[in-house]
Amino acid sequence: MATSVSSSLVPLLFFARISGLLAAALVIYWALVFKSSFLPQSTSQEDLVYAVLHPLLMVIGFILISGEAILVHRWLPGSRGFKKSVHLCLQGLALACGIFGIWTKFHGNDGIVANFFSLHSWMGLICISLFGAQLCTKTK
Fold this sequence. Notes:
Residues 15-140 form the Cytochrome b561 domain. By secondary structure, this protein is an all-alpha fold.
């Protein structure tokens, strides 16, 4: 019975993965074509790389890797404990991508305080904090 359920979910899993990869590809396209939306003033190439890494790592971490961690319970064969440990490892990797993505935003010349004047910044910090707190409660 489990085989028929998992085989009926194959198209849905395929669609979910293709959608996530498409989102990451669109972020890369956006970064390469519309560079001025990341850094309006002309600055160094290094600043542009750090500015592009922030949205890219957030999409890869919180959409692709975290989404795969959610789907792992459906497609991965093995025991429940094995699935839970793979899920935890993927969530940890997603958290690491998120933390590194935030670090890239703080790497600029503006400093840390200059990045906290928008609702986006505060919501992102709250989101990553709650994600990390959730991960800490899973290990117990």
